[in-house]
Amino acid sequence: MENDLYQIIYASAATRPIEEDELLLMLKHAREKNKQLGITGMLLHCDGSFIQALEGPKDQVMNMLDIIRRDSRHSRIVVLFEGPIQNRSFSQWSMGFNRPSKEKLARSEGYTPYLDLGDDAQAIKNYSSVALKLIGAFRELSDKKSSTMEG
What we know:
The protein is of the alpha+beta class. It is built from 5 helices and 5 strands; from the N terminus they run E-H-E-E-H-E-E-H-H-H. It has a single domain (5-143), classed as Alpha-Beta Plaits (2-Layer Sandwich).
């Protein structure tokens, strides 16, 4: 168990379509920065929506969320979970990544139309356990395959 581990899971909407090359470059930079800061996590991107888990030292995780809030590519950021954790869920990845299709999401255990909730922040917060399940499901899928999208 590491001391003072903290986790934040948030959802956001892209302010514009993000091309594959741009997304891969974002991931490369995030992975490099996260390794320096001791942050691990997982990012899901589907149809202009993001769900991301960040974990590590509390100060570093909070600072990273502040950077994301100022990033012009993100809008409607809603924190779904925030709090201390005993162990990392994503210890192997500076930033694991999966880009599931809506069809693949719909087949995931515990899926609800989370990504279709629009601006209803309260409804989004009500689905925080679903976000955790989705991230966990795609972490398990990514654990089972080798991919250039992992890091």
